[in-house]
Amino acid sequence: MPAALTRLIGLVKTSKLLSEIERKEWLQKMETMNEDQLTKLETILVQAEKINWTEELPKYEAAVAEAER
Description:
By secondary structure, the protein is mainly alpha-helical. Helices cover about 75% and strands about 0% of the residues.
């Protein structure tokens, strides 16, 4: 297995962006994805790793609550 694919699998398995169900789905889908699609998925997951979830999640929750009012 290429190192890039091993890294992507690790990103999928540890991403805070994905639920357990989504992790399983992405791992299955990766088998049929082309190189461009895999690169895009990796880019998204790498960006998600950079998010300070402790700080950003409350902001998101507040915005959703405000929008619901």
